[in-house]
Amino acid sequence: MLKPEEISALIQDDETSERKRIAKVGQDYYEGLHDIRNYRLYYYNADGKLIEDTTRSNIKIAHPFFTELVDQCVQYMLSGDETFVKSDIPELQDELDQYFDDDFRSELSDTLTDVCAGGFGYMYAYKNADDRTAFVFADAMGVVEVRAKDTDDHTEYVIYWYIDRIDKGKKKIKRIQVWDKQQVSYFVQVDDGKIEIDKDEPMNPRPHIVYEKDNEEGRFGDSLGYIPFFRIDNNRKQTSHLKPVKALIDDYDLMACGLSNNLQDVSEALYVVKGFQGDNLEEMIQNIKTKKHIGVEPDGDVDIKTIDIPHEARVSKLDIDEKNIYRFGMGFNSAQIGDGNITNVVIKSRYALLDLKCNKLQTKLKSFLKKLTKIALTEINAVNETDYQISDIYFDFDREVMTNALDNAQIEKVEAETQQVRLTTILNAAARLDNDTVLQAICELLDLDFEEVKSLVEQNPTVDLNGASETLANTTVTDQNIPPGTEGGDG
User: Fold this and answer.
1) Nearest in space to 404 (alpha carbons), one of 488, 345, 353
2) Cα(310)–Cα(307) distance, integer angstroms
3) In terms of pLDDT, which residue wins out, 345 or 390?
4) What distance in Å separates the CA atoms of residue 144 and residue 165, rounded to the nearest whole number?
5) 425 Cβ neighbours under 8 A, 6+ residues apart
6) 3-state DSSP assignment of residue 420
7) How far is it, in rounded angstroms, from Cα 353 to Cα 350?
8) Which of 31, 34, 56, 62 is nearest to 43 (CA)?
9) How many CB atoms lie within 10 A of CB 233?
10) Does residue 431 or residue 371 have the better pLDDT?
């Protein structure tokens, strides 16, 4: 087991690593903490020294495009209502639904947010109160993978730390867990002090699983046999979605804040006064503000000067930056106006880049889910004494896209009319075919169970399909589940 001083050194090395530094930038931009916060203004004084200008306006407004891009990708990826871990075996599907339910979807959403914002994310497994393995989110910034050698793929330990609370005196209480294949040890650190064994934990170190014995005092433990932390990467280099658009977002912040600064600095006009009657400049300024008049010599004059701000150039640059942010960030720009012809084809084309980004992430996500599914499948087989294989499971992400309701009604109408034509064709041919052939064709068209319908027909031998074909053939289109309001024409 690792010693406290070794744990401290490993956490510090991890926090200062290039990988975590880049991930921290992505996390900051997701939270709206942009580089514009550190923007400062300078000027050269009469002595040629560079001095910070504290008198001019320096508005610092972050424009969280990256937050929207990340949330778009995550929510669009998980937008389907049905589970994405599926099986064609009903009994197995019922078991899988207990593992990959709405709670799992919520935890996976947080993990994918880390993946998009920081470049990688984690989930860990534990046994819940129902003695079933559950998977929950782990903050990627607090996970430290420890290997015997830097070139070794085998993880010997996983250190997981998080800030538990801010204690009295604003002291940060950091909880630290050290996991190996057999057990987990708990440590605590106050601020930047020494790491110590957590005495609040009754069992330390503790097995992965602790069982309470029935009807008697005592406990016994068991091991999962593996370190229950699983990582999903955004790409091989573990870089986030921020990299292609960071410079564009920074430029947008500068342009927008620069325009705000210009408006703030020139909010009042400049007064050029000739032949002022008086010797008190402050009195003149006060007269302008309050009395709105001043006295001048007979040949004097007052000229009001205003400054034209080059706002059109800035606004044009902001529009270009916004367009490029969504383009290279591969997102959906909801502010895009278009030509007003918002058909389903147009809507789908606007989702093209977001679809492409999610397709890339989906490949990584399927590989990640396969690891979790293997653990769940092993447990299902052990509990139910079954022999399900990983090949019995597949992953299906049915992402939802907003659609045009009128287009949908037209599509449904065309489909219903097509089905009516096919049904009429079958019934026209019914007189030359036997009942079973006609019945099977109708069942395939209407997606009905042939054997079930056949048994019902056999219980009603008086039904004559050939005799009923003429009546069914004359069925109007409005009888075929046409959407209301679309049966009268093309509207």
Assistant:
1) 345
2) 9
3) 390
4) 20
5) none
6) helix
7) 7
8) 56
9) 15
10) 371
Distance (Å, whole) CA 52 – CA 191: 34
Determine the pLDDT at residue 243.
Answer: 93
What is the Cα–Cα distance from 143 to 5, expressed in whole angstroms? Answer: 17
Q: Is the pLDDT of residue 489 over 60?
A: no
Place of tokens 């170190």: 205
CB 115 within 8 A of CB 233: yes
Q: Which residue, chain included where needed, has tokens 């591969």?
A: 330
Q: Which pair of tokens denotes residue 255?
A: 């342009």
Distance CA 311, CA 76 (A): 36
pLDDT(413) > 80: no
End-to-end CA distance of the chain: 73
Q: Any bridge partners for residue 197, and if so which? A: 187
Model confidence pLDDT, tens digit, residues 77-106: 998 777 899 999 999 999 999 999 999 999
User: Residue 190 contacts by C-beta under 8 Å, 6 or more apart in sequence?
Assistant: 167, 171, 172, 173, 174
pLDDT in tens, 117-136: 999 999 999 988 888 999 99
Largest CA distance in the chain: 118
Non-local (6+) Cβ contacts of 34 within 8 A are 28, 62, 63, 64, 249, 250, 253
**pTM for the full predicted model:** 0.75
Written as one letter, the residue type at 142 is G
Q: What percent of the chain has pLDDT over 70?
A: 78
Dist. CA 329–CA 359, nearest whole Å: 14
Contact 259, 309 (CB under 8 A): yes
Task: Pick 315 or 490 by higher pLDDT.
Answer: 315
Which letter does DSSP use for residue 36 in this model?
Answer: G
**Tell me, what's the pLDDT at 453?**
75
